[in-house]
Design brief:
The complex is a heterodimer of chains A (about 350) and B (about 70).
Chain A: E1 2-5, E2 8-18, E3 21-23, H1 24-27, H2 35-45, E4 49-51, H3 59-72, E5 83-87, H4 98-106, E6 113-117, H5 123-134, E7 142-149, E8 169-177, E9 184-190, E10 198-199, E11 217-218, E12 224-225, E13 231-232, H6 234-256, E14 265-268, H7 273-283, H8 294-297, H9 305-313, H10 315-320, E15 322-331, E16 335-344, E17 348-354
Parallel strand pairs in A: 2-17, 5-6, 5-7, 14-15
Antiparallel strand pairs in A: 1-9, 2-8, 3-4, 7-8, 9-16, 10-13, 11-12, 15-16
Chain B: H1 3-11, H2 31-45, H3 60-71
Classes of the chains: A alpha/beta (about 350), B mainly alpha (about 70).
């Protein structure tokens, strides 16, 4: 389905990544595969370094750290936040919402909306869509969108399908009105019939965590994981992306009346380098227009990868000038969404390390 | 022999494969090779195979037959 938004803009992006860095070549010994094959995987997928929280660190910790930094430097004022959206699949608790936790820890005003959204890799685009809708209300002048996940805490260290690609991060995006803003186009599709392709089977009410769900099992592919861990059917996800994402973007650009050549950057969710190169090839887009280096440097942090791609690759461009950006998120749900938006004159666009605990 | 066999050999990192070669007998036949084959078939043959489709094929020749049946 299609959406349009008027007179709104993204005014700042901050990505917080844990300072702790892990290297693929050190971790690959944990996997039950020959070293040569793991090195081949590294080369093809673009695995190298990734950021991972230390034990006990939650998404609210990353979010509070990032927001506090913005307050301290005068880049955002507490009182101007009318809504705080937290998109995460790894919340601090079942309840209360992590957005309320963040609000409370920072002492934000009561006269605001806190809302958690359970979305994974499509979560940045879906979060933007929700934020733009809120900005239709007179009382909502500024929305803080947080895409934060610590999925490393739900990944099996002995699962080569998942562990080497996961990164943790929190991205904070500020959205506000802009009387001169150009029309923003978005579209979205969902398919819950394919929900099993990306799933943490245990830990919810359907299958509560127990000693049994913590047992590591080999399901026949030399990977060991428990039902408490995130499972991904990698080939199904690959097929899903190649099949669904190009027509979605084609339809978006057609609705907007914008030729594909006019898009400066395709800022896609970052599952791995391989998938993004194949996607660019299929869409006949030069690789340089579709950054694919987030997994290599930081890991795949679910809904935070698109802001990471922006803050890591395009910070100067979007602070000083404008780029015509096509955003695309796709993954768990399954859900896939894209957005055509002019990014520019951001008051901040940067990355920040969440420090390791003092020892 | 055709291009398909050359491409499979490339993915399996060997000089050549024959129709009777058993896929699982190659030490390089793992989830990465399966994904590489799926990506190659999508890009070069415009067909979408699932990982489950590979359960029914043992040899390179059977894989080629499956590709042709999907293409038909």
């Amino acid at each position: 389905m299609n959406f349009t938004y008027h007179n709104k803009r993204i005014s700042g992006i901050l990505t917080v990544v844990p300072a702790q860095e892990r290297a693929f070549v050190e971790e690959m010994r944990n996997f039950n595969f020959p070293e040569a094959r793991s090195l081949k995987l590294k080369e093809v997928m673009g695995y190298d370094k990734r950021r991972m929280v230390e034990s006990g660190v939650c998404v609210s910790d990353l979010a509070v750290f990032g927001l506090q930094s913005l307050f301290d430097r005068g880049l955002l004022k507490k009182d101007e936040i009318d809504a705080l959206l937290m998109v995460t699949v790894s919340p601090d608790y079942f309840t209360p919402p992590t957005s309320n936790i963040v609000q409370g820890r920072l002492g934000l005003k009561q006269d605001m909306l806190c809302l958690d959204i359970n979305q994974a890799c499509a979560g940045f685009v879906i979060g933007l869509m929700e934020a733009f809708m809120l900005l239709e209300q007179e009382s909502v002048k500024k929305v803080v969108l947080i895409n934060a996940d610590v999925v490393s805490r739900k990944a099996s260290p002995k699962d080569r399908n998942i562990y080497p690609l996961i990164g943790d991060a929190a991205a904070i995006t500020i959205l506000e009105r802009d009387p001169n803003g150009s029309t923003i186009y978005a579209n979205l599709k969902m398919d819950g019939s394919r929900a099993d392709a990306l799933k943490i089977p245990a830990g919810g009410c359907r299958l509560p965590s127990s000693p049994e769900t913590a047992v590591m099992e080999d399901v026949g592919d030399n990977n060991l994981r428990a039902k408490d861990h995130l499972y991904m059917d990698g080939t199904a996800i690959f097929n899903f992306v190649q099949l669904e994402v190009p027509p979605m973007i084609e339809s978006l650009l057609k609705t907007a009346g914008v030729p594909i050549e006019s898009v400066d950057y395709f800022l896609c969710h970052q599952p791995n380098r391989f998938m993004l190169q194949k996607l660019a090839d299929k869409m006949k887009v030069p690789h340089a227009k579709m950054p694919n280096n987030v997994v290599q440097h930081f890991g795949n942090s679910s809904g935070a990868t698109i802001p990471t791609a922006i803050t890591f690759n395009l910070a100067e461009q979007v602070k000083k000038g404008h780029v015509q950006a096509c955003l695309a998120g796709f993954g768990g749900g399954l859900a896939w969404a894209s957005m055509l938006v002019r990014l520019g004159e951001l008051s901040f666009c940067e990355m920040l390390d969440y420090p390791n605990a003092q020892k | 022999m055709n291009d398909f066999f050359t491409k499979i050999a490339g993915i399996l990192e060997v000089d050549a494969v024959t129709e009777s070669d058993v896929l699982k007998a190659f030490p390089q036949w793992d989830s990465l090779s399966v994904l590489s084959v799926i990506a190659m078939l999508d890009a070069d043959y415009q067909i979408n195979l699932k990982a489950a489709d590979f359960q029914q094929v043992k040899t390179v020749g059977e894989l080629w037959a499956l590709v042709q049946s999907k293409k038909a």
